[in-house]
Amino acid sequence: MTIEDFRPTQKITTFYPPQRVLMGPGPSDTHSRVLSAMARPTLGHLDPVFTAMMEELKSLLRYAFQTKNLMTFPVSGPGSVGMEMCFVNMIVPGDKVIVCRNGVFGSRMIENVERHGGVAVVVDDKWGEPVDPQKVEDALKQNPDAKILAFVHAETSTGVLSDAKTLCELAHRHGCLNIVDTVTSLGGSPLKVDEWGIDAIYSGSQKCLSCPPGLSPVSFSERVIELVKNRKEKVHSWFMDLNLLLGYWGTTRTYHHTAPTNALYALHESLFMLYEEGLEHSWARHDRNYKALKAGLETFGMKYVVDERYRLPQLNAVYVPEGVDEKEVRRRLLDEYNLEIGAGLGDFAGKIWRFGLMGYSSKIENIVLCLNALETVFSDMGMKLEHGAAESAAHHSYAANPMPSKFSE
User: Fold this and answer.
1) Which GO molecular function annotations are given, in alphabetical order (predicted)?
2) Which of 75, 211, 245, 353 is the most buried (most CB within 10 A)?
3) Does the annotation flag 354 for ligand binding?
């Protein structure tokens, strides 16, 4: 065989992706400032200019997480790597871990516990409902030898928000550490690592931070660092071993791996933009836009999966109207309006849509586009609608819910 035998048979040219409006469960739209940051000159991952930027990035992440934890940094990999990093460092074979499951991502936590040799004690709640603190307390009492409580703060598969503060308090009261998934909540909903007593936390770059996928912000309390330092056996992952990463993300800058420098530029810029806006302003913006989208969706007779008290403003899970072809609606939105919304997962596959209002995607023009596009598609499918009612309802919501003028940081 010759080199030519391996030439691609299909015609390949430079790839130019279409310009989409991303209103699904992630990723979200990326601001031009963040894309521009990614295109800046590549530096070596031990270059002193780059390592100085790393220190700024850690400081910005501490602001976003509301923590003083020294080990607060982005893992080179998606949120799933951040999740595995928490479990692989904190679990030794035989450890009992109480895991809360009320959606897809609680199930992934269970998988992590079992793969690392732990014993998962599962606390189940119905999909679309928050984790029940009473069930958790009962499980902690029944399992006094449990080492860790793990739960999802913002369940992306259903759009439900659980009470992280109460759950973390329960864990500490019963002598447990905690692991918290905040992939969808960081930057979009109130999150206070130190005040709530969160020990290990992970998130993703592509949701409310509006950075391209591929980085997972994490933060670890001193309790976790001491646990990992005192392990009697090596962490069962070289790449995710906190003992080794302490050298690279700490002060010595010991070589560990080639960090994705340009991706980190992007995260630095997105976090800087969050800092410029202010955390409280970001939280209020997400909530205000959710209320406007909700007002518009309700004119179509659409109902939310989650009770309003526990609803994520940045992830709107709604039931598909009866008689509507949910796949066809998503196809037409994508093909005709370049608008992406999400389908249901697991138990909700084919039954719900998930409308994301995350980060840069959470803005008035996206909501107006979405509501008008849905109105057209629904009308074509024979649904009886009042023309313009959805957009009008959204604008009335904006008028009734102005942004606060001042924020205390």
Assistant:
1) alanine-glyoxylate transaminase activity; L-serine-pyruvate transaminase activity
2) 211
3) yes
